[in-house]
Design brief:
The structure is a homotetramer of 133-residue chains. The first copy, chain A, is α+β, with helices and mostly antiparallel strands. The first copy, chain A, has a single domain, classed as Roll (Thiol Ester Dehydrase, Chain A). The first copy, chain A, is built from three helices and six strands; from the N terminus they run ααββαββββ. Chain A has a six-stranded antiparallel beta sheet with strand order 1-2-4-5-6-3. The model of chain A has no long low-confidence stretch (mean pLDDT 97). The A-B interface holds A 8-9, 11-14, 16-18, 37-45, 48-51, 53-55, 57-58, 75-83 and B 8-9, 11-14, 16-18, 37-45, 48-51, 53-55, 57-58, 75-83.
Chain lengths: 133, 133, 133, 133
C-alpha cells in the first residue's frame, strides 16, 4: 500500500517543489509534511495557504486511495478548507483521514498542523472519486 | 490599486515558485496566471490542483482587497473549490471576482481557466476577512 | 421534462411544508419559490436559512436532473452555501443552474433572491450525483 | 447558558415546524433532534436533506454562541455539508461542536446521526460570526 502511494507521490513535481515528504500510509490515513523555505511563503513570510492546501488535498486523496481496489485511481472532486491559525511553523504536517468510503465516492477529513502536531492550522473536508486507471 | 496589490504579490515566495504573474487588477476583479513547468505537476504530468487552488485563492483575496480601505489587509477565512476539468494546459488563468463586499467579510467567486480562457477547470467560492494592518 | 420534475417535487412533503412552488423548469435551470409564513422563521422573524438552503438544494438537484437520462435519479453529494444578506422578504426565489454536467457528477450553482429577484440572499455551489432508479 | 439558547430556539418558527427539540447545551457543544413526520420528507419518503441541514446549522450556531459574551448574537456566514448515508430513521440527531473559537469568527463541526447516534448521515463544517445584539 505504501509502495503504491509512494510511486504516485514521487511522480508529482509539485510535491518536490513544496519540499513535501510522504510521512506515513495506513489504511484510511495518510500523513504528508512540508519543510519551510522562502520559496513557499505568502507576503508576511509564513507558509502560503496554498502549500497547506496542496499537501492536505494530497493526504486526503491518498487516504481515499488506500480504501480502493488496485485498478483504481483517485481524483479530487472538490474540497472546502478553513484557515484557523497562521501557518507560522518550520514544518507543516498534513493528515488525511477517510470519513466514509464508498464504491464511487470517498469523503475525507484533512487536518494541517504545525511541526509539533498540536496547533491546528487548517481543516479540510474533501470529496474524492475513484476512476479506472 | 495595482501598485498596492503588486507590492504584496511580489512578497509572496510561492507565487514566484508557481511561475505566477499578476495579469490585471480592477475594482472587484483580479487575474493571475501560472506558466506550466514540470515542477508544478501531479502524477500524470498536468498542473497539480494545488497550483490552480493557490493562484485562484490569491486572485480572490486581492479582488476582495480592491474593495477595502488602504489600512486593511485581507486573509482567507475559508474556500470551497470544485475541480471540473483536467488542468491540461500550458498556462492557468485564475480570475477572482467579488460577489458581495462587506465591512468585515467579502465573498468572492473564483474561476480557473486554461490558456484560451474558454475551458473552465475549477470553480471556487471564498470568504475573505479584512484585518487591520 | 417539467412533468418528470413536478411529479418528484410533489412527492416531497417538505416542499409543501415550506410553502414551496416549482416555478419553472428549463434545460439546466430550475426555479423554486417559498412564500413567507411564521412557521418558517428564525429567531428574528425572517426566513430561516434552512428554508433558503432547502429550496436551493432542490433547485440545483432538479437542474442537474434535466441533464440526465430518463432512467436516472439525482442525489446531493454535498454543497456549500454562503449567506450574504438577511432573508427579509415575503417570498424567496431559488434558482439552480448547471455549471458542468458529467455522466456521474454534475456541478450546480444556486442563487437565492428576495421576491424582487434583485437582492442576492444566498449563494450555493452543489455537487450532484446521478444514480440508477 | 441553556436558558439563553432555549429562549432563542423557541422563537424559531422553523424549529417547531421541523419537530425539532433542543436536546442539550454544553460549552462548545449543542445537540438538537427532529422527529420524523411525512411533512419533512423528500420524494422517497425519508427525511429531506434540508431538515438535517437546518437542525445541524442551528446546532453549530448555538454551539458557537456558548463561547460568545452575553451581548453577542451569532449568524451563519457559510457552511458546507456532505450527505453520507440516506436519512432513513425515525429521529435525526444533530450535534454541533466548536472547532475553533475567535473573537469574530467561530468554526464548528456538525454531525447528523440517526436515532441510535451510530450511523453518520451528514457532516457539516460551518463558519459563524459574532454580531452585537
Amino acid at each position: 500500500m505504501y509502495d503504491r502511494i509512494k510511486e504516485s507521490f514521487d511522480k508529482q513535481g509539485l510535491m518536490k517543489t513544496l519540499n513535501a515528504k510522504l510521512v506515513s500510509v495506513e489504511k484510511g490515513e495518510v500523513k504528508i509534511s512540508s519543510e519551510f523555505s522562502e520559496a513557499l511563503t505568502q507576503q508576511h513570510g509564513f507558509f502560503h495557504a496554498g502549500v497547506a492546501t496542496s499537501i492536505v488535498d494530497n493526504a486526503c486523496g491518498y487516504a481515499a486511495l488506500t480504501m480502493m481496489p488496485e485498478d483504481m485511481e483517485v481524483l479530487s472532486v472538490e474540497f472546502k478548507i478553513n484557515f484557523i491559525k497562521p501557518a507560522k511553523t518550520d514544518k507543516l504536517i498534513a493528515i488525511g483521514k477517510v470519513l466514509q468510503s464508498g464504491r464511487t465516492l470517498t469523503i475525507c477529513e484533512g487536518y494541517v498542523y504545525d511541526s509539533s502536531e498540536e496547533k491546528l492550522i487548517s481543516k479540510m473536508t474533501a470529496t474524492m472519486i475513484a476512476v479506472k486507471k
